[in-house]
Amino acid sequence: MQLVTIDDISAAADRIRGWVVRTPLIPAPWGDPERPLWLKPENLQAVGAFKVRGAFNAIARLDEATRARGVVAYSSGNHAQAVAYAAARFGISAAIVMPEETPGVKIAATRSHGAEVMLCAAGEREKIADEVVARTGGVLIPPFDHPDVIAGQGTVGLEIAEDLPDVANVIVPVSGGGLASGVGTAIKALAPGAEVIGVEPELAADTAEGLAAGHRVDWSIEDRNRTIADGLRSQPSALTFAHLQKVLDTLITVSENDIRSAVREIALSAHLVSEPSGATALAAYRSRDTPPGPTVLVVSGGNVEPALLAEILAP
């Protein structure tokens, strides 16, 4: 299996420059003194999440005739918005399949970029997307199972290594695995002394179980949908799992209470809005003794339902 390389990620960075925000590393003086803390706020991207990086890289890599056929995607939310946004910038059509349980704020945002949105039952999105591709002739841009998507997400790690060369720990959420695969690949190449630590909810911990077993395991969609972290309900593909086996030093699972507390801490201490999925890195930092040294948390997204955020922040 061909894995993404640092050269692929560097090329992606050149390709998407001008389309995405080069998010800063924000120092967090309220972190632990022995583990100085920085946040990588991908919630500041135009679509509120890191997914825009992979979407732009994948679409930009298409030849002009292929791109003109339009694109198709399936997503629980952030990838949907990213593909819709990127497609609009390229002036092409986008058809997006989203599960019915997707937060309304993510559905509305996807439609706001001009995409056609089709809602489907849980576990049906890939099948429906394949039908849309067959019907429209559009090009499928998967949320994580594609080297161009992984390379685009890896630019997060490239920027971390450039901005904090002595980074000791990078904590990154894991779901389908595209972000952690790309970030881990970049960090291992550019800051090889750093630990790459994945994090996922206890209620969607299929990757933790799979890494311990040495092979992918399957959790039902009903089980994975229990977590409040709606952006972390996917399972890795063969491609991303192979990356995760190579680049993750460890994987931490966090409770729902840990996730809620992290959303609140980011809001009150960093003055940033994080969705539950994006706050899991802080939940891992708080719930476990990660190694000492400069630590970067990837705040992967900030697209949270206002009512849920109000509930979490309520005294």
Automatic annotation (TrEMBL):
Catalytic activity, as annotated: L-threonine = 2-oxobutanoate + NH4(+)
UniProt entry keywords in alphabetical sequence: Lyase, Pyridoxal phosphate
Coiled coil: none
A GO MF label: threonine deaminase activity
Cofactor(s) for this UniProt protein: pyridoxal 5'-phosphate
Superkingdom per UniProt: Bacteria
Biological processes per GO annotation: isoleucine biosynthetic process; L-serine catabolic process; L-threonine catabolic process
Enzyme Commission (EC) number: 4.3.1.19
Residues covered by the Tryptophan synthase beta chain-like PALP domain: 20-301
Top class in the EC scheme: lyase
Alphabetical list of InterPro entries matching this protein: Ser/Thr_Dehydratase, TrpB-like_PALP, TrpB-like_PALP_sf
PANTHER family: L-THREONINE DEHYDRATASE CATABOLIC TDCB, THREONINE DEHYDRATASE, MITOCHONDRIAL-RELATED
Role: Catalyzes the anaerobic formation of alpha-ketobutyrate and ammonia from threonine in a two-step reaction. The first step involved a dehydration of threonine and a production of enamine intermediates (aminocrotonate), which tautomerizes to its imine form (iminobutyrate). Both intermediates are unstable and short-lived. The second step is the nonenzymatic hydrolysis of the enamine/imine intermediates to form 2-ketobutyrate and free ammonia. In the low water environment of the cell, the second step is accelerated by RidA.
Entry's family note: Belongs to the serine/threonine dehydratase family.
UniProt-recorded name of the protein: threonine ammonia-lyase
